[in-house]
Amino acid sequence: MQRLSLCTILALFVASLLPAQATDNIVRAKLRQVALGNASDVRAELPDLLRTYPNDAGMQFLNATLMTDGVKALPQFVRIVRENPQSIWADDAQWRVVQIYALRKDTSNARSELQNFRRNYPTSEFLLFAAEIVKSTVGLPPTFTTYRNPVVVASTARSVPAPTTAKPLEKPTTTTSEPVKSSSVKPESKTEPTPPQTLHNASEANTENNAQEERYTLQVGIYSSRESAIADVQKLLKARLRSDVIEKSTDGSARFAVTVGNYSSREAAEKAKAVVQKACSCVPFVVVKQ
Questions:
Q1: Which domain holds residue 68?
Q2: Cβ–Cβ contacts within 10 Å for residue 146, how many?
Q3: Is pLDDT above 50 for 40?
Q4: I need a labelling partner for 49 at 20 to 30 A (CA). Which of 156, 172, 213, 258 fits?
Q5: Which residues are within 8 A (CB) of 256 and not within 5 positions of it... i.e. 6 or more apart?
Q6: Based on the domain organization, do 62 and 111 belong to the same domain?
């Protein structure tokens, strides 16, 4: 018994001498294991890690991340933000706070915490993710804007191509290829009527512009219930993959597709497939983003 106590004291002493960067690297390694599906192994090691690093923000973040109940994890993430606002894990924790409130459809807190996120961590790579999950669940606060487009970082790769815009694209308006009859155009006084051929050309130009604005994403799963789709999104977000739920209709029945990424071209989406597949252990395929 005395020997065990001495070992514990020695471990704590050695831990106190380690720089913060060393513990951060340990946390990153454990989070990578969680993303790869080895959460049970990390949970088995967690008690010893917490005893060795009881006040480390990174270890507290790891502990909260391993909790399966978001309600129980929420105060842990809040504590990190309040007590360690300068820690490298603070913006991660703030992002999880926003995520939990958004998924619970708590509009007031989700929007309020998103505003706090933008004010306190305007350059965080997770700010855009937080804004998008709030937008897709309860809607963004009025006049909310993000200031940068982060690179989407997968836990098992360096990076996924970043989206080129944070604003959602409007669904292309269907235009007719038939020329508009001049009789349907009512010019004002002293204004020459627009020739039908000119309007026809404008219609073609609009169609071309809509085609140019077409965007792509990677579908990684489809579910019959929104809850199952959201649960999958949570797993992908832990793996640092930007993901969304898109409702589709198949044979008159609602289906909920889980997608990753927002790409300006099919080629960019194809290039990202290998990275996403390795990070999520799934088989993604390219679809047009709606």
A1: 19-137
A2: 20
A3: yes
A4: 156
A5: 222, 223, 224, 225, 226, 228, 229, 245, 246, 247, 248
A6: yes
**Is 112 found in the same domain as 50?**
yes
83 vs 90: CA distance, rounded Å: 9
48-62, 117-131, 178-192: range with lowest mean pLDDT = 178-192
SS3 244: strand
Q: Do residues 276 and 218 lie in contact, with contact meaning Cβ atoms separated by under 8 Å?
A: yes
288, 214 contact by CB (below 8 A): yes
pLDDT confidence band for 200 (50 / 70 / 90)? very low
What is the rounded distance in angstroms from the CA atom of residue 75 to the CA atom of residue 31? 20
| Predicted local confidence at residue 132, as pLDDT | 84
User: Any idea how long the chain is?
Assistant: 290
Domain count, the chain: 3
